[in-house]
Design a protein that fits this description.
This protein has 291 residues and is α/β, with parallel strands linked by helices. 41% of the residues lie in helices and 9% in strands. It is built from twelve helices and nine strands. It has helices at 16-24, 30-36, 41-53, 68-75, 95-103, 121-130, 147-156, 173-182, 199-208, 225-234, 251-259, 269-281, and strands spanning 56-58, 83-85, 110-112, 136-138, 162-164, 188-190, 214-216, 240-242, 263-264. The protein has a nine-stranded parallel β-sheet, with helices on one face. Strand 8, helix 11 (251-259) and strand 9 (263-264) form a beta-alpha-beta unit. Helix 6 (121-130) packs parallel to helix 7 (147-156) and helix 7 (147-156) runs parallel beside helix 8 (173-182). The longest helix has 13 residues, at 41-53. The protein is elongated. The chain starts with 15 loop residues before the first helix and ends in a 10-residue tail after the last helix.
């Protein structure tokens, strides 16, 4: 007699490569996936298959800083990564751990290396040679970035749309000019906290990158009004500009952008004065700003 009791299936009975990996495991946090490996040998094999086919790796999803050995083990079989974010590995990440990952993943289009100070220029050269489709790259606070490695990036990654070079203090105007001449599709660029960046670089950015939407010049002390006016003339799609601590940039150049609705991180002089006055005396006097 046939039993009417439905059989109880197991998660592992579902097709791994067709169902579990692309449609189920991809929705679970990486930290939980790694914990699943301890359930059984079958789950361990499943998670290893997932890791080998993972498209996005973000070290911050694991929570606590990931150990060096764990990082190497997690990505040793992966050749299909598209996004790689390693800011949580900044304390220990060197070329020795990064270069093998870059060398076997040629489809990367988004790389985040913010604060990875122990890398060298060889890392950027490797990225430029292995990742021709790269679109977004963060090298913020990577002071090892120099003009030669940046030239390699510009020569091989011309599809770049966003580059963060905050506090890359070895770079000067010439290197920035070369980058934007080769990578004219840039929509977002940060040159913040670099006293070597001046009007020459900013004007070249403006003339070479008509699609530019966001530019961060925070703390670029050599930038002056002339380059801001050129920016206003050549970048009609500009949506935000950061010029805080750019002491040679005045409202006479910023007002052009302000009138176009560009988001600026400095207040108009009168409004700034009212805020300071309120801080001092505890209230803001009524002033008719339309006079």
């Amino acid at each position: 007699m046939m039993s009417l009791t439905p059989s109880r299936g197991c998660l592992l009975d579902l097709p791994w490569e067709d169902i579990l990996v692309p449609h189920i495991l991809c929705h679970l946090p990486l930290q939980q996936l790694l914990s699943l490996q301890r359930v059984s040998k079958s789950f361990q094999s499943l998670i290893q298959l997932y890791l080998a086919n993972m498209r996005c790796f973000d070290s911050s999803q694991i929570g606590s800083p990931i150990p060096r050995a764990a990082f190497v083990n997690l990505l040793k079989d992966n050749e299909v990564l598209q996004q790689l974010a390693l800011q949580n590995c900044s304390d220990w990440l060197t070329d020795g751990e990064l270069l093998p990952v870059i060398g076997q993943n040629h489809h990367l289009h988004h790389i985040q290396l913010k604060g990875c100070a122990q890398l060298s220029r060889h890392a950027l050269v490797a990225i430029s040679l292995s990742c021709p489709s790269l679109r977004r790259l963060s090298l913020a606070h990577c002071e090892w970035v120099d003009s030669l490695s940046l030239r390699s990036l510009a020569d091989h990654c011309k599809a770049l749309e966003a580059v963060d070079l905050t506090a890359c203090r070895q770079l000067k105007d010439e290197a920035i000019c070369y980058l934007v001449q080769k990578c004219s599709r840039l929509k977002s660029l940060s040159l913040a906290v670099n006293a070597n960046v001046g009007d020459v670089a900013v004007e070249e950015v403006a003339k070479c990158c008509p699609e530019l939407e966001h530019l961060d010049l925070t703390g670029c002390l050599r930038v002056k009004n002339d380059s801001i006016r050129v920016l206003a003339e050549y970048c009609p799609k500009l949506r935000s500009l950061k010029v805080k601590h750019c002491h040679n940039v005045a409202e006479s150049s910023l007002s052009i952008l302000r009138s176009r609705g560009v988001e600026l991180d400095v207040e108009p002089p009168l409004q700034r004065a009212l805020v300071l006055l309120q801080d001092v005396v505890g209230f803001a006097p009524f002033i008719n700003l339309q006079i």
